[in-house]
Description:
mainly beta; Immunoglobulin-like; 4 domains; six-stranded mixed β-sheet; four-stranded mixed β-sheet
Amino acid sequence: MQLLPSRAGMGRRRLTALFGVVAVVALAFMVGAISGARAGIGDDVCPDAHGEDTNTCPPGQVGVPYSITFKLPEGQGCGPGQDSWSVVGGAAPTGLSMSSDGTLSGTPTQAGVFVFDIQMSLPDTPSCNGTRDTTQRRMTLTINPAIPRLVLGPESTAPATTGAVYSLQMTASIPDAKTFSISGGALPAGLAIDAATGLVAGTPTTAGTYAFTVYAKANGDARSDTKSLQIVVRDPLTITTGAPFESGRALGEVRVPLGSTWTSSGGSGTYTWALTTGTLPPGVLFTNGSLSGAPRTAGTYPFAVSVTDSEGRTANVAARISVASALTVTTAALRPARVGKAYATRLRTSAGVKPIAWKIRAGKLPGGVRFDRVVGSLTGVPKKAGRYRLSFEARDSQRVVARRTLTLTVNEVARPRR
């Protein structure tokens, strides 16, 4: 006979079964909660380097801003913003730092290979057990050396001169091939820039101040630079010789003061004069473009003078001084004359600087005789016998005067003997 369970027993069995179902559901919920809070670090940013037990991040470069953000694998974690990141071992590249949201950023300051450990932690909450879900991973990040900047030079330019060849070599901080051009302003007329070498060269034609900007770009990358400069172009430096050196040669005479002022034009700034070669006559000096003094010794003196401006230009001129001995009347006596007979004689001089001008300072010529002031001659037919005392004066181009007193004797006509 089959016994049927009592109502009380049946109730107890149903309650037990129901509790078991609830317990299974609760356990499943707890397992699901723990599984949903699992931590992890994805390979998206820094892929796994097989065989090296490390993840390799994209390389950086010294001086160039860098940023990557580490992330959890899809479907893991407790939700946006609840995971916390940090560097827990080794050292991140100098200049970079890790924020709690997993971003490693900054500007690297040192090249090298950096190996460091990062950690991702979940919060310790009932729904997200962070104590049990902490993940670490080793990272490798290479920071490459900085690429040298392109910096143009020079910082200044030398002045130029019209009509003279000029060159200015642009410089650069890198040896890489570059292309040069003028991006602003203008070079002096007659100058041009070589696109491949950066040499500014030519012969300027017009004086003035010319401001311009040179642009250069590296042919293999985007590096570039500009340099603003100016070139000052001056007219040539010249010397103008003063009198009596207009032809480059001057005549002087012993003990006669010699003076001459020379001038310079063109160039720029202060002029500095110098006697560069040769010698001046004793007694003559050259100072600041002026010759002065009285020669003490006859002779020929070639010399050269230079002038230099404050920007280094130089002009030169050669000259010569011929110094004569002092003028002297060398005629010691006059040849006698005779009444009624043609007479001619010429006074003589030595040294001095021609032309010579003559005159009679004192005395009276015999009737019929005249004196030529140009050549210093006495000519004519004396009319009256006698002794005529005459004082003659010769004056040369240096205004030197020489004097001589002479007597002209005019004799009677000789009578025939019986």
